[in-house]
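Reviewer 2 asked us to include a model.

Predict the structure of this chain.
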Amino acid sequence: MLDPARSYDLIGDVHGCAHTLEHLLDTLGYRLTQGVWRHPSRQALFLGDIIDRGPRIREALHIVHGMVEAGQAHCIMGNHEFNALGWVTPADPHSGKTFVREHTPRHLRLIGETLRQLEDYPGDWQDFLGWFYTMPLFLDVGRFRAVHACWDGGVIEQLRKDYPDGCIDQSLIQASSIRDSFAANAFDRLLRGTDMRLPGGLTLTGGDGLTRSFFRTKFWEDDPQTYGDIVFQPDALPEQVALTPLSSSDKSALLRYGVDEPLLFVGHYWRSGQPAPIRPNLACLDYSAVLYGKLVAYRLDQETTLDPRKFVWVDVQRPELTP
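Predicted model (structure tokens):
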């Protein structure tokens, strides 16, 4: 689907920050021509999570969808696009649920802004939901890969048997409503990443106000010794937890993306500070745009090792959040 010889601008989670996205595209040399942002020689590749939270979700969707339709961009699925499909999709009758994504206050809190901003545009909303099904869960271009949260080769290999291009259908969405099914685990792993239960029944309330009994973990660490060595999320672990040694079973459960594997780009993780590679072959491009952070791109050409000088970003200004 993608030309491996082409140059791409990989872009992290937009989350409805349409003005900032236009600023970034302009910075990258794209120009608005006939209603579409275009570049004479490059294509954009969005890492998912175009929707939710931000002030201009519909506008952001139109920008990215217009670029994809015009052949100026590609976009993979994020967990928020998956959540939207789950919100409107009836669950498997054996799941005990009504919808794949149950309409709980917690779930409404995440998708509420999207529903509110599109409630007067039902045609647009239906069109966008249909478009979400065309977003692949992963891209493997040979010399580089892209996935929203975590590259799990085993899960991807299994998915490829029925969905060789990574684009899924309603049956897989419905199947994910059954706890511990392959579908549920596949979406969770690729779109949300790896996690581990906090020890001793502890819970952690994050900066987003949600309380969790799990924390997000690195999927590339070679020889971690403690919980602190593998945490990968904005919220730090309590010191006594961070210093807790990992058991042998904890270590064996960890996924490892090797340093000799192709370049990998992910979003999802709400990083902060100056954008830089995590490893020579691994970059996260989500720098918390919707929290007045940065909207980040990486300008990929033919390199096989990430170049810190090729990260490009714009700071999100508060006018972005002014209606």
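The two ends are 37 Å apart (CA to CA). Residues 105-118 form the longest helix (14 residues). We have added this to the supplementary material.
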